[in-house]
Each structure stands twice: as C-alpha cells, then as structure tokens.
Amino acid sequence: MDTHPDIVDMRARHESAERAASTPKVQAIDALAFLTGIYLAASPWIAGFNSFTRLSIINLIVGIAYALLMSGGFGRAYERTHGMAWAACALGVWTIVAPWVIAGDATTTRTVVSNVITGAVAALLALAASAAARSGDSSGAAHGRSRRGMARAGHD
Q1: How far apart are CA 101 and CA 134, in angstroms?
Q2: How much is the pLDDT for 122?
Q3: Are 137 and 79 in contact (CB under 8 A)?
Q4: CA 67, CA 128: separation in Å to the nearest integer?
Q5: Which of 42, 65, 7, 29 shows the shortest CA–CA distance to 114?
Q6: Distance between CA atoms of 17 and 19, rounded to whole angstroms?
Q7: Cβ–Cβ contacts within 10 Å for residue 106, how many?
Q8: How far apart are CA 120 and CA 97, in angstroms?
Q9: What is the pLDDT of residues 94-140, one digit of tens each?
Q10: How do residues 21-45 score in pLDDT, each as one tens digit?
C-alpha cells in the first residue's frame, strides 16, 4: 500500500507543501497579510473615520475576511492557496475603491489614504502569496509526476 502511486503522489505533495510553508518568505507573507487584515478591520477607529458607519462596517468585515483568508493557507490547504490568494487580491482592490463605491460622503482624506494604502498592500501581498503558491505547485507537481511515473514504470 505504501508504494501505491496515489499514496506516493499525495505524500510528495504534502512534503512539498510543508517545505513551501516553512520558508521565511512565505512566513513573512503570512504574517504581513494577517496584520494587514487586522489593521483594515480596525482602521476606522485607528485612522479616525468611524463616523462613516457603512465604510466602517465594510472595512471591519473585509479586514476579518482578508486576515482569515490569508493566514495559514499554505500549510493546511496548499492546493487551494492559489485561488484564495486571488480572492484576497480582489478584497484588496475592493478596499481601494470602497470609499467611492459606498453610498454616502465617505471620500475624506483619511478614508481615501487609509483604504488606498491598505488595499494596495493587501493586493500586493495576495499576489506574492499567489506567486509563492504557483512556484510551489509547479515544483511539487513535477516532483509528484516523476515519482508517479517511476512507481508505475516499476509496477508494470
């Protein structure tokens, strides 16, 4: 059973995910993305625009969603990290345009500066996570295919 091609492939993908998740680059992206999400959630109270109720609620929800989406995705759900990173990138873009899209007069200097900078950082971190996931997927996939091919060749 230990030499079954599917088991060998799953083990290779798991080992690749563990290696990718333990690199300092990925850990830094993870930590910065989590902090960005927490800041976005708290930004109405930190930057002082909590009087804009709709934007405050949107930032709170999007910040929590971003932090949850980006924190720890590499190790536990490595194959889905690429898709999660693109969803997080969309949240970053939404954060940039939110002050203008939200109904009401929420386009003050504080809201625009806070949301544009935070959204840009969020989008860049999500793109970095996507790139890290892609580079890990391609090396892991090639590694798994070569092992599977060798296992089947030896099994036939």
Answers
A1: 32
A2: 96
A3: yes
A4: 15
A5: 42
A6: 5
A7: 22
A8: 11
A9: 999 999 998 677 778 899 999 999 999 999 999 988 887 666 555 44
A10: 567 888 888 899 999 999 999 999 9
